[in-house]
Amino acid sequence: MRNFFAVYTKELRSYFVSPVAYVIAGVFLFLSGYLFRNILMSFNFYCQQFSQRSQFMSGAGMPQLNLNEMVVTQFFGVMDFIWLMVVPMLTMRLFAEEKKSGTIELLMTSPISTVQILMGKFLACFTLYNLIVALTLVYPLILEVYGDPDWGPIWTAYLGYFLLGGTFVGVGILASAVTENQIVAVLLAFGGLLLLWLIDWSATFAGPTAAKILHSVSIIEHLQGFQRGVIDTKDVVFYLSFTFFTLFVTSRVVESRRWRR
Amino acid sequence: MIEVRNLSKTYGDVTAVEDVSFIAEKGEILGFLGPNGAGKTTTMRVLTCYLPPSSGSAIVDGFDVVEESMEVRRRIGYLPEFPPLYADMTVSSYLTFVAKIKGVPSAQLKSRMDEAMEKTGIAHQRNNVIGHLSKGYRQRVGLAQALVHNPSVLILDEPTVGLDPRQIIEIRETIKALRGEHTIILCTHILPEVSMTCDKIVIISEGCIVGEGTPESLMSQLKEGEVLRAQIAGPSDEIRELLSGIDGVLDVVDDDTAAPKDGDEQAYIVTAAPGHDIRDLVAKRIVDGGHGLRELRGLEMDLEDIFLQLTTQEAEA
C-alpha cells in the first residue's frame, strides 16, 4: 500500500511540476468553454424565435424547449470527443518515458509488485482526469445561475464521464506500456479509442448478430444513457470490465520481461 | 553473498551469456571485467531480477532470483549503466521515493537518506533538481539511490563511465569505503579500476568466463614463466650461449627496443620455465664469466596484458 502510494504521489507530482497538467487543463477548458458558449448562444437564438412564434401559436401542440436536452446533453455529447484526444496525451509518458530513460529498471528491481506500479500510475492519471472534469462543473453552474436545469441528468452524465475516463486511461496506459516512444503511444491510444468509438458505425452494414456485438463494444454507445439521466447496470459493467481488462493486459505486458526466457 | 551457477541467457538466437558461474563472498568487492558487449550487463540484470535466466540459477543472500525475487530485490542495490533518475525531481524527493519503494520504514527514512547522501557527497545538492546536476553528481545520486536502503548486496554497472579523472578517483574511493559492509559487484571494462578496488576478479568475454581469481593469482597463473631483462657488456654470441645454458631457461632473445649502448653492451630478454627463479643464477654466471652485468630486472605482466591475452585468445578461438 505504501509502495503504491509512493508511485501515485510521484506520478501526480510530475504532472504538476511540469507544464503538462496546466497546459492540458487550459486547452481543454478553453475548447469546452468555446463549445459551451456556442451551444448556449444557439439555445438563446431558439428561445428568441420561439417566443416570437408563440405569440401566433398558443397552447397545445407547441414543442417544449428543454434546457437539459438542448444544452446539457449536447454539451456533454461533444466533450467526450475532446477527451478522446486529450487522454492519450495524459497517458503517453506513464510507461514509455520510464522505458526510454531506463528508470523502469529501478522500478522493476525494487521490491514492489507490477500491480502496485500500474495502479499508482493509473490512479494518478485518473485523478488528474477527474480534476479537470470537475472543473467543467462551472458550465452547469452558469446554467443554474441563469436558468433552471435538472441536476439529475447532469450528475449521471458526470458518473458516465467518471466511468468513461477509467476506460480511456486504461487504453492509454496499455498503449504506453507497449512502446518506449511517446509519439507511438499517443497514436496507438488515439487510434484505438477512435476505432472503439466509430465501431458501431459499421454495425449499420453488418448482420443482425454482428451489429449487436459491434454496438455493445462501442465506448460511446454506453455513454448515451448516462447523458439522458439513465444509469443502466449494463453500461456500468461495460466500463468497469473494459477498464479492468486493459489494466490486466497492461500488467501482463509490463511483467512479460520476467517470464520471457 | 552471491552465487551464480551455470547461468545462461539467450535473446532469441543470440547467446548473451553462456554457462557463467562465480561466487562473491560476503563483504568483498568482485570485479566483473570484460570488453563492451561481453555480457556484463546481462549478467547483472539477471542478478537484479530484471531479466530471468534462460538456464542456470543465481542465489543472492540465500534467495533465488526467480523463485524468491521479492526477497532478492529487498536486499539488492543496483546502479545500472545509465543511472535511473527522474530529471524533474529534486535529489531529496527522488531519494525519498526510492527509499519508499525499497521498503525503508518511515522512522528510518530520514537517517537513511542522510547517510546515503553523506557517503556519496551530495548532501549539499539535496534541494537541486536532478536535471540540472552535472554528470558526476548524477552518477553520485545514482549511487546514493543504490545505497539508500542499506542493501547487503550492491551491483554497480560501469559506475565511473563518462566522468572526469578527478570524479573517477572520488567514486572509486567511495566504493572502496563501502567494502566490508556490503558485498559489491563492480562491472567495468577499465582495468586499473579493478586492480585498484577489487578483492577478486572475474573476466568475461563473449558471454563466457575466461579468467577468475585475485588480481595477484590471476597474474601469476597467467605468467608463462619468469621473464628477465638483462643488460650485459661483452661478446653477444658468447653471452647468449651462456644464458641458454642455464638450467630452466627456455629462450633468449635480444631486446631491440632499447637503444644500442656504447661498445658491446646489449640487452637480452631471458624467459625461464614456470617455477624457476633464475635471477641469482644469471647474475652469478655472468659475473663468473667475466662479463659486465649492467642491469638485471624481472619483467612483470600487468593486468592489461593478461586481459588482452585472455580476451583476444577467446576471440580467435
What does this entry look like structurally?
Chain A is mainly α. Chain A has one domain (2-256). Chain A has twelve helices and no strands. Chain A has helices at 2-17, 20-53, 67-91, 93-101, 103-108, 114-135, 138-146, 151-177, 182-198, 208-217, 223-228, 233-259. By secondary structure, chain B is of the alpha/beta class. Chain B has eleven helices and 14 strands. Chain B is elongated, with a radius of gyration of 25 Å. The two termini of chain B are 33 Å apart. Chains A and B meet through helix 1, helix 5 and helix 12 of A and helix 2 and helix 3 of B.
List keywords for this structure.
heterodimer, A: 261 residues, mainly alpha, B: 317 residues, alpha/beta, Rossmann fold, 2 domains, 11 helices
Kindly summarize this structure in a few lines:
Chain A has 261 residues and is mostly helical.
Itemize the secondary structure elements and their pairings.
The complex is a heterodimer of chains A (261) and B (317).
Chain A: H1 2-17, H2 20-53, H3 67-91, H4 93-101, H5 103-108, H6 114-135, H7 138-146, H8 151-177, H9 182-198, H10 208-217, H11 223-228, H12 233-259
Helix pairs in contact in A: 1-6, 2-3, 3-8, 3-9, 6-8, 6-12, 8-9, 8-12
Chain B: E1 2-11, E2 14-24, E3 29-33, H1 40-47, E4 55-60, E5 63-64, H2 69-75, E6 76-79, H3 91-101, H4 106-120, H5 135-147, E7 153-157, H6 165-177, E8 183-188, H7 191-197, E9 200-205, E10 208-213, H8 215-222, E11 227-233, H9 236-244, E12 249-254, E13 265-272, H10 279-288, E14 292-299, H11 303-316
Parallel strand pairs in B: 3-8, 3-9, 6-7, 7-8
Antiparallel strand pairs in B: 1-2, 1-4, 4-5, 9-10, 11-13, 11-14, 12-13
Helix pairs in contact in B: 3-4, 4-5
Mean pLDDT of chain A equals 88
Average residue pLDDT of chain B: 84
Class from helix and strand fractions of chain A: mainly alpha
Portion of residues in beta strands of chain A equals: under 5%
Distance between the termini of chain B: 33 Å
Which percent bin holds the helix content of chain B? 25-40%
Main sheet attributes: strand count, strand direction, barrel closure of chain A: none
Largest beta-sheet details of chain B: 6 strands, mixed
